[in-house]
Amino acid sequence: MSEENEDIPTAPARTGPDESTVQYQWDGDATPSTAVVEAVAATTGRELTALPSLYESVDAEAIDDLFSDPDGTVRLSFEYAGVTVTLYADGGIEVSPP
């Protein structure tokens, strides 16, 4: 993994029948929006600088605000860089094919 992706706190776990969904857990050291970009980079094997701006898909500041102190039911899914990203209130991030 490249040095830029070292902040992803846990190793990914592949889930689902075809194991195409990858799960990550962010620990709060990085913002949720940063954790999303790092998870997508790690999953797709692309450098952070090769990914499009997250702002082309969603409002990154809104993600950070929404997940800064979420209740247990918050979940958000969106398309980014050719994958579907789902964030959960508990810090989970799933990256899967669209």
Structure write-up:
The chain has helices spanning about 30-45, 60-65, and strands at about 15, 20-25, 75-80, 85-90, 90-95. It has one domain (about 5-95). It has about 100 residues and is an alpha+beta fold. Strands 1-2-5-4-3 form a five-stranded antiparallel sheet, with helices on one face.
Which key terms come to mind for this protein?
98 residues; alpha+beta; 5-stranded antiparallel sheet; 26% strand; disordered N terminus; HalOD1; Halobacterial output domain-containing protein
Task: Write a compact overview of the structure shown.
The chain is of the alpha+beta class and 98 residues long.
Biggest sheet, spatial arrangement of strands: 1-2-5-4-3
Anisotropy-based shape:
globular
Largest sheet: 5 strands, antiparallel
Structural class: alpha+beta
- SSE arrangement, N to C: EEHHEEE
Secondary structure: number of strands: 5
Mean pLDDT over all positions: 84
Number of domain modules: 1
Distance between the ends: 23 Å
Strand content: 25-35%
Sequence-ordered SSE layout with sheet pairings:
Elements: E1 13-15, E2 21-25, H1 32-44, H2 60-66, E3 75-80, E4 83-88, E5 92-96
Antiparallel strand pairs: 1-2, 2-5, 3-4, 4-5
